[in-house]
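Why does this matter for the project? Reviewers at the last site visit asked to see concrete outputs rather than summary tables. In response, this paragraph embeds two records directly. Each consists of the residue sequence and, immediately after it, the corresponding structure tokens. Nothing has been edited or filtered.
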Amino acid sequence: MKIMTNALLLLLFSAGATFAQDAQMTLHENTFNKFLKAVGQISGGGRFKKAFIKTDYTWKIKNARIDLEPNKATFYADADIKVKGITFTEKVTGSVDVSFNPVSNVISVKVRDAKFDVVIFGAKVATIDLAKYYKPKFEFPGPQPLQKTVLVDLPDGSKKRINITTKSQSFKIIKDRIVVVSYLTFTG
């Protein structure tokens, strides 16, 4: 019975916390992954030359995705590297910067680095950083009202000016989501 009571209190507390904010913007990681999919396949190549060995290599990125976990964002992809008809896959793991600027009301998500090495015959011939290919930041508006003031018509024919200000904001990365919450004040 005590466990059920505690669970109910936790549920009510969580529900109260959810409804306490005035405005909220939530971005799901699927938003970014759909964008990465729309970018399409990224590929490149180069030439390996050492002693009497000369060969070309190519690389192709598949399954690019961003994973959101509590307080962090990570970039993942698979790099298929092809040399002389042989293809092997390198796992790519990179870091993603996620930030919220309360002054400009902008949520930014940017792949900071996502490197993998091209190794041929035991020799590292190149380091590729995919961050330069996923260079544009994803930017979204945060939860702030578009209006700073509202004029309300009163029954006596006068108008009352209501000022809307953002009292505070909080930003966090949770499992699969980025959440920005705003608390507003109305004065008149």
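We now turn to the second protein, recorded in exactly the same manner.
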Amino acid sequence: MKEILLINISGADKPGVTSAMTSILAQYKANILDIGQAVIHDNLTLGLLVEIPPEYESSPVLKDVLFKSHELGMQVRFQPISEASYSHWVSQQGKDRHIVTLLARKITAQQIAEVTTVAKQHGLNIDNISRLSGRVRLDCESSQTKACVEFSARGNTANLGALRSDFMELSVRLDADIAFQEDNIYRRNRRLVCFDMDSTLIEAEVIDELAKAAGVGDEVVAITEAAMRGELDFKESFSRRVALLKGLDESVLAGIAERLPVTEGAERLVSTLSKLGFKTAILSGGFNYFGRYVQKKLGIDYVYANELEIKDGKVTGNVSGEVVDGERKAQLLRELAARENLSLEQVIAVGDGANDLPMLSIAGLGIAFRAKPLVKASAKQSISNLGLDGILYLIGFRDRDENSI
């Protein structure tokens, strides 16, 4: 009769523990049905689910493993597993798998407690927990620290909308971002990232900066804010704002471009994506002049924005060509995906305004970044508490991976 044993070994991490234990099991022709190992603060936990063949008894196996554990200064615990229990465990593998990513400046016990409670309430079981962020010094008080924990969860939730709503409520209350994704092949195979520019790649709305220089700042800001909240049609609001810029001297544009503040984490994100073989694009309702400036500064592959019309060294108050609004952004995203021979599931879209929602909705991973409430509520994922490089965690990137690329 076959015997199934769960063996848990723990203690101070040292080289050779896994090798020693599996070498013993190999002597008894054991089959490894499942295995997991983790090291936290130099403390090892090793779990082995083992099938002992009928021709061997478990007693000698237990004795040899116990002796070797004592020799290595490790603790060991054995648990017999019935065939019925094992069969039930096997039957669970058909359930959907998900990734829950918790991002914050610092991870607290309360955040983890409440995230896992919500997961449990919606029928999800946490299989694995991993820290993706690097180690942080206790005396580090930087406002730009970042922490990330990833949960691998299994289960079929009855109401996905309610689950996302509960995570959204937690994220606001706990000053954390919580992403919930299906764990499928596309999550590990994204290849194109499309960014909005204003208030996403840069911490400014260029048209507002132009308006200040033209002396119509307050008027344009009011229209911009209404448009970003979704209260005004983008094309109408855009036309009204650009018209107010009529007569602005062309020389002003260069000075504004040079002062544009790049968003926290943008340079690291784009540089890392490039090293990993991703293509990147700016799809902006702003202006090509500034899009090309940001493209060169960050190393972006493509840029599509509006062409601000200038005649005789003065802004005319018009744009030439097709206006890049929300629908145009979505169309451009589709075209770029086709050009790169990618499915939409392999595309990430990032933006903050209402005119970004069409492209966020069709991308495999749509992320509302430091977005307005309407956009944050409508997008599948959002990041509000970290910089743009927090997106790397959503594709499973670990901080330590940076050393190997």
